[in-house]
Automatic annotation (TrEMBL):
Keywords: Repeat. Residues 1-29, 49-77 are annotated as: Disordered. Pfam families: PPR, PPR_2. PPR repeats lie at residues 132-166, 203-237, 238-273, 274-308, 344-378, 414-448. InterPro entries: PPR5-like (IPR044179), PPR_rpt (IPR002885), TPR-like_helical_dom_sf (IPR011990). Gene3D superfamilies: Tetratricopeptide repeat domain. This is Pentatricopeptide repeat-containing protein. The keyword Repeat applies. It comes from Salix suchowensis. Residues 1-14 have a biased composition (Low complexity). Belongs to the PPR family. P subfamily.
Length: 486
């Protein structure tokens, strides 16, 4: 049976960020240049045109002498229409500047790094351009978030060439660009460069970013070294720094180190635990299924005077849902209503996921319908849970309808979304459709991750397709070598 997932996806009106920014700005620019050209023509014709009066004035020269005309001694006033033209020209030039600035801001907000760089290059060509630190800061952060650390470093060098003196904040943004992309060694090179510059010494934010990078890469041997370096420089870690390290230790099950950091926070006056600390600890034990420890720590944090927030309750709901403790899950949701904490998309996602994992399509659909009735916006995780739930229940025709509904709602199709569809294909033993979805995933510039390859390898192994497995493993190793596999 063919599920026709790829045909459902192909019929969806996907949005693409086409590279039209440069062309649109040129179109916006043309009227202004046209206006300037008309002004130049007007000025040149005015210089060569004869006097407005066609009646010759009385001559006072003889043959061969200089042809002078009698004229009033009163000074001539500039015509009002010329003043108006100059004001119009200035206002239109100012409007063009605002248009470029707004377009650049819009590109940054939409994380369109290539378009943002193109607009910035166009801005630099204008006579009114002046380099600003704030503009470079925005672009450095954008490039780091969009996986372009090398381009960020290039932009940093261009900034220095333009005469902007680097600051600790700018260096920290460059370091963050490398650390966001797991290039820790390059991050250490940046911080060492900062330490050699008297006016660019690293601060607690710089070290926090580097610590988070080490945690994400499980380079825990570097954490103590960074802590010692901070202590030598009299830099005290703040609550954010400690929460980052606390989360890293908890995710890999290093509970002794986690408890040591938490004890230090409780004894410290500078970095007391906050609601984020509470959420991290509850997530660690909730994800591990250790409900008793999670509940015990919840009470401890409440006794410390830390009040829960919506995310705290969502963590509890998710943990209870994974253990199919639906009564406790419902109790938390009722308590949220009682104390007027709003149910969010994450709240519904946790409930939908709980029923999806159990293959309980009926209750899953009920939760989704209630979510829509309350005008709560569904996201990619919502549809991943629906697809997984229908697949677990063997309702593959509803998987197709979920994919079509996601297209109708213009839900972003990330790796998790494609993995859910590929997994559904594998569960339905439709390997041909699985391969079509995998091809579409790559055609849409959505890089497969380790989960993608794991699902497909298992599906091929089940059918004894060793040649397909070999090809996928080779492709996976190539992505690991390129550093593009997540």
């Amino acid at each position: 049976m063919s599920l026709s997932f790829s045909s459902s996806l192909l019929s969806s009106p996907l949005t693409h960020n086409k590279n039209k920014t440069h062309q649109q700005l040129k179109q916006n620019q043309n009227p202004i240049h046209t206006h300037k050209l008309l002004l130049r023509c007007a000025f040149s014709s005015a210089a060569t045109a004869p006097p407005s009066s066609t009646v010759p004035k009385k001559k006072h020269w003889k043959q061969g002498e200089f042809p002078g005309f009698t004229d009033d001694s009163r000074p001539r006033r500039t015509p009002i229409k010329n003043i108006k033209k100059k004001l119009d020209r200035k206002s239109k030039a100012k409007a063009w500047v605002n248009t470029v600035a707004e377009t650049l801001t819009d590109c940054v907000l939409k994380k369109q790094w290539l378009e943002a760089i193109q607009v910035f290059e166009m801005l630099k060509e204008q006579p009114f351009y002046q380099p600003k630190e704030a503009t470079y800061m925005k672009l450095l952060v954008l490039l780091g978030r969009c996986g372009q650390p090398q381009r960020a470093h290039q932009l940093f060098d261009e900034m220095v060439e333009e005469g902007i003196e680097p600051t600790p904040e700018l260096y920290t943004a460059l370091l963050a660009a490398y650390c966001r992309n797991n290039l820790i060694d390059e991050g250490f090179l940046i911080i060492n460069q900062m330490k050699s510059l008297p006016r660019c010494q690293p601060d607690v934010y710089t070290y926090s970013i580097l610590l988070k990078s080490c945690v994400d890469a499980s380079r825990f041997e570097l954490i103590e070294t960074l802590y010692q370096e901070m202590d030598e420089r009299l830099i005290s870690p703040n609550t954010v720094t400690q929460n980052v390290v606390l989360s890293g230790y908890g995710k890999v099950g290093m509970y002794d180190q986690m408890e040591r950091v938490l004890s230090g926070m409780l004894e410290s006056e500078a970095c007391k635990p906050d609601v984020w600390t509470m959420n991290i600890i509850l997530s660690v034990f909730g994800n591990k299924g250790q409900i008793d420890l999670m509940e015990r720590w919840y009470e401890k944090f409440r006794n410390f005077g830390i009040e829960p927030e919506t995310r705290t309750f969502n963590i509890l709901i998710g943990a209870y849902g994974k253990k199919r403790m639906y009564d406790k899950m419902s109790s938390v949701m009722e308590y949220m209503r009682k104390v007027q904490f709003p149910w969010t998309t994450s709240t519904y996602n946790n409930v939908i996921e709980a029923f999806a994992d159990a293959g309980d399509a009926k209750n899953m659909e009920y939760a989704f319908d209630q979510m829509r009735a309350e005008s709560m916006k569904a996201d990619t995780k919502t549809f991943c849970c629906l697809i997984n739930g229908y697949a677990n229940a063997g309702l593959f025709h509803k998987v197709i309808s979920s994919v079509q509904l996601a297209a109708k709602f213009e839900i972003p199709e990330n790796a998790s979304f494609y993995n859910a569809v590929i997994s559904a294909c594998a569960m339905a033993d439709d390997l041909m459709e699985m391969e079509r979805v995998f091809k579409r995933m790559k055609d849409k510039q959505c890089p497969p991750d380790s989960r993608t390859y794991s699902i497909m390898v298992e599906a091929y192994r089940k059918e004894g397709m060793n040649d397909k497995i070999y090809y996928l493993e080779q492709e996976q190793q190539e992505m690991i070598g390129n550093g593009t596999l997540k």
